[in-house]
Queue: 3 jobs
Job 1
Amino acid sequence: MQTTSLRKGENTGLMTAPVVLAVSVQGLAADVSALMLGAEGRVRSDDDLVFYNHPAQDGVSIAGSTVTADLVRVPADVDRVVVVVSADPLQPRAVFTGAPFLSITQTGSPVRSFTAPDFTSGETVVVLAELYRRDDGWKIRAVGQGYASGLAGLATDYGVDVESEPAAIPAPLPAQGRRNSGSAGPAVDLSKVQRMAPALLAPARHASKALVDRDIANRRAAVYLILDHGYDMKELYESFAVQAFAERVLALSATLDDDGSVPVIFSSGRQPFLEEIRLDNYRGRIGQLHTQVDWRRGRVAESMRRAVQHYQESGAADPAFIVAQVGDEPWDKAEVRSLLQNTASLGVFWLFVGFGRGKLAFYKNLNASASATFTNVAFYDASKNPGSVPDERFYAGLVDAFATWLRH
């Protein structure tokens, strides 16, 4: 029988009938599991994690490395079924390198398959695919998104209460070199991250090291995050790439400001939507929030203006580090330039982080002209999927220009 191969991000329709999803991984002991999620991207209860110790729930079952989902029996309040493959936690230092393979079989339909991309950033768990409702039927999407948090970390992102062995709280990374004057203090203690969001401890330590290496480990800043919510970003929200990006920014914030929260502004339409992501609520938070925002090309300047307004109203004495994720060219370029000029004296630094499928020449060329240089602006190209960028390189790209600006 002919097999149809899916590429990462592609989807295809399914019959409302049992579907068999067989996973194979070469050279690594791995476990397969499934998560049943409601419309808000969260499990209804801990029973919605289907794995070797709980092999069946409401029409979804696990047998070895095979997931079977009887789509007729899946309850109406289950919106998605996520197929996950994770490195065996009893296998020391086991990470994914080769690509997991997924075979999708339904009686009366051609066999479909998906081979995830190879991984290079120490990923220990991969969201391989998701079954999701569309109109009155079901579809499957090839995801292939890797994470370094293990199954326990990923499960908690979806609201599963996973018990784990308490880990020793590491000592804060020591500051090296000279200490800067001004808005300064001792290096931020990461024990709060360990206590409230242990899955973010590893990226927070990488972020802390990036600050140490640039001699700004003792500096403070209020971190903001602006997210593009144009329609071209939809796939990146649905594949959890934006959630993963926001988590890494939150980990950076934990090293610059110990309040454990980042204001998040969704750029969509004329009225930006502002909420926050915190160490105590970050799991699945972007998925919960972005469903309240329309898909449309937003006014970037309006989102920037909202961030500055929030910063000024907060009364913060420390500078603002505003990370603005952009997926395409802005249509309000003149307003963006004007805002950059007007905020140069306000203690605001702008980092435009490009990822997505659109053109980003405007942001790349902001400082190309010597006569129009913005001292408080930088651009970082994080590739089409920043999740594939190793933590060390990712945080270097995030803080390099900010560190230079802060020291001057």
Note: Residues 391-407 form the longest helix (17 residues).
Job 2
Amino acid sequence: MTGIRLRVALVLIGLAVTSAASDAETVVLKGGTLYASADAVALPDAVIVISDGVISAVGKSGEVSVPADARAIDCSGKTVVAGFWNSHVHFTEHVWHNAGAAPAAPLTQHMQEMLTRWGFTTVWDLGSDPNNTLPLRKRIAAGEVAGPTILLAGNIFPKGGHPVYVPSEVQLPEVATPEEATKWAHDWLAMGEDGIKLFTGAFMGDKPVINMDPAIAKAAVDVAHAQGRPVFAHPQNKVGVETVIASDVDVLAHTTPSERAYTDDQLARFKAQGTALIPTLGLFTTVVLDPNVTNRLIAATVNQLKQFSDNGGTVLFGTDVGFTKQYDTTQEVQLMHRALSERQVLASLTTNPARFFKAAKKGKVERGFDADLVVLDGDPLADVGNLAKVSTTIRAGHVIYQKP
């Protein structure tokens, strides 16, 4: 990825919040400690005023004018940060089937269990049925379902690369030529998807991994980049990682537990190309039953995360939730903390994705920014586990989750 190429015109973020923000109430968060960004100093006894879905004022108590008709949320003893991004989710569970017509209440309830109670205000869905997820996104934008802003990536698999963990009856877009990849990429983006996800390596169980030819991957990348859209990739081994580099993919959707470490050359290329990484460390606690094997997988992936971060790479938070049912984010933030500081973990949830995906009005709690905020029960810089202890989640000025 080069600077201007990934404009990621996240126009759909704007579309997703427009209708919800237009009738948003005035909300005031009072008395909490504010971290306006991941690298900001704490502002105690803060007041944040939200009007029409936008942060209209930020300051200390007594220094900010509070509208008389505002809905006040007492944040005393709590911490306020920007809304969280989960850059790797899947709306594939049965509850999302027929999401365009299903009753809103169970959709909102499951959205809370899966995402909003963990502070997520923006998510990247890296593979689901658009017949379900596109209507779901519209219902969230209309205020019918309380949920995060949803961005979607259409999937492309190598020919014969139907992963063993995907039911055989599920039809997947497998491609054998660059021309087929070009067509699928065009079709996904024309449908309303916001990016592309390539399986540069497909896990086939006890059979060899099927890797995507770099020329095929590059054909899809070229289509996406021509439209300013990002490309994610799922590598399964070293060959898949090399294809990510050769084809100029923007985001590694996982670390690669089959490899102990990234090579010096890979790290140099990641840095030169501006590649980002979603570690999904908690995922690798679910793939085998032997705890000794699990420990080795985690050691390898934590090491890759540390290498990548120490090399100056952008780290994005993601859990693969929907594929897994580990909704609770505690384990993920704690595993990431083995390689990153508390501020770096917070950045992976807030400022990093906002900057990487060019969402200029997200990722910070400042006047004029989108009113996407999270109220935490404790200070995440004192204990990284507090990032999973969410009291209130606000998207576009609307409370979409509040702890009972």
Note: Confidence is low (pLDDT under 50) at residues 2-22.
Job 3
Amino acid sequence: MSTTQHNALRFITCGSVDDGKSTLIGRLLVDSKSVLQDQLAGVTKHGASSKEAIDLAQLTDGLAAEREQGITIDVAWRYFSTAQRKFIIGDAPGHEQYTRNMVTAASNADAAVVLVDATKLDWQNPQLSLLPQTKRHSLLVHLLRVPSLIFAVNKLDAVADPALAFANIQAALQRFAKAEHLTAAAIVPISALKGYNVVSTEPGFAGYSGPALLPLLESLPATPPDTGLPLAFPVQWVEKFSSSADTSKSRRVFWGRVATGHIEAGQQVRIFPANRTARVVEVLDHVRAPHAVSAGDSAGVLLDQEVDISRGDWLIAEASAAAPANQATGDFDNFDAPVGTHYAWPGQREITATIAWMDDEPAAVGRVYWTLHGHRWVKAKIRRIVQQLNIHTLQREAAEQLEPNAIGTVELVLQEAIPAAPYSQSRSLGALILVDTASHKTAAAVLVND
């Protein structure tokens, strides 16, 4: 078995409301024997003994409001394993108003299973249309660079002709994927309620002869850390030990998680935004053992000199050749001057980005928000809304504002430069959030464009 298969796979289920996401996760947990007997007893309908007698959705819907309404509100993470692999699985909400929760879950996922409810579609029509939320979640999964996408066509046991329904829905999904340049690892017909093609194959079901969902998940790759890129290390916490008499190194440890590249003793780094250089004297891992640390893991860094570094600052590799950075002047009054140009990840103050708008108040040109990049907060203004994606026609259209749950492209101007990079190159450096300055609500997920 490959090393990749040994790595835990973090995946989410998403799609429209009542497509059966929670039921699917419950089925995976039950049929993989990852549920304790007392948990199983708590979700078994009284006096029944069949598979359908288990209220599978109750295994993930833990909030009282979720149980009362029969919907998923917050992302519920569950852990289970098979003989082949360990899994971390998230049940993402299907309601439009909880799209922000789905985006949060997808941003850290290795794979996504988008459920499609066959009973909600005109499955007898070869040119049927998919539900808007199915399209929205699929596009968000693509935008968030989730490496693997699987479409699971659910509830086919509840239609008169499962084979015809699956053929027409599969064709619609393939048309949609081709139009939006999505790559689906598989399209699988399932019944989460009855367990068909979930953990094991149901022979002949819906005319499908491929593998069941779980074996497909066991074969998917985990997201590799960005170890091949230049170093970027966001400082999260500064630990001081001023009583030390050792003057050969700083009396501060800078803790954080390596975003890209690796960090080791002897490495020359440049401090952002101070634009000063320093040499790494020692690197500690998460248990304070001294050795090099790579992207995705936590580290404590000691430098060869006392430098004013705070939470939100970065340690970045020096550029191999001093190329000019993005020195945009912006159009904010009294904005700070751009930072130096010698970083492998140069600072930027003008960014074109794809955003998923989450606030109840529409996004409007000229509004100022807080933006969080790494652990650094700066102010940002929407200078222009370039376009909006029409979720029904999949056309890009001009827009003056973005309504809740809309997906669009905007130009942002930042008060201070940040070491941002295209999201297609680095998930860590290319992701931001916008936060309303008055309500402190998360307003948008922001993905830096190329």
Note: The chain has a mean pLDDT of 84.
